[in-house]
Design a protein that fits this description.
Number of domains: 1
Largest sheet: none
Distance between the termini: 16 Å
Strand content: under 5%
Number of strands: 0
Structural class: mainly alpha
Order of helices and strands: HHHHHH
């Protein structure tokens, strides 16, 4: 398999779709939080559209992330810029792996908490979502650093498919 110079249109769309869905999960999580706390107190929760959105959003995020991972294995990903310091390449690789990992475990822990009623999974879900938010911030800072300090085309590769 040859090394692609950029990401495919599907990879770009999946990247931004996952970003948008995760942003919605963070912004619209009050309803699921209230419903989960009610369930844990033995009360009947309100099942509004935002509860359904959170559950369906989590399932969709998991499916899209798995799709992204399969595409990355099958198609590959562009190499880092040649002038990028090796330590930044290691940080970028570690951040990407951690993003995939924490996206998956955040969804799975949320599912275990919601559908399985496991309080420990609910606690883990809260911790994982905080870690995920930090990783997303690191990912954004890294992309902006690439664009404005190193003057590389890394950001362009995720904005314009090959």
């Amino acid at each position: 398999m040859s090394q692609p110079k950029g990401y495919s249109a599907t990879q770009v769309v999946l990247h931004w779709a996952v970003f948008a869905l995760i942003a919605l999960q963070f912004l619209l999580n009050d309803a699921i939080g209230a419903a989960y706390r009610a369930v844990m107190r033995g009360q009947t929760p309100e099942f509004g559209v935002l509860v359904l959105q959170h559950v369906a959003g989590g399932v969709l995020i998991l499916a899209l992330v798995i799709w992204r991972m399969v595409l990355k294995v099958r198609r590959g990903a562009p190499l880092p810029p040649a002038h990028e310091p090796p330590i930044l390449q290691k940080v970028a690789t570690g951040t990407h792996l951690a993003l995939y990992l924490f996206t998956i475990v955040t969804v799975l822990s949320g599912g275990l908490a919601w559908f399985g009623g496991f309080a420990a999974a609910g606690t883990a879900h809260e911790i994982f979502k905080t870690v995920l938010l930090v990783l997303i911030g690191l990912h954004v800072v890294g992309a902006l650093y690439q664009k404005f300090v190193l003057k590389s085309d890394v950001m362009t590769r995720m904005l314009r498919p090959e």
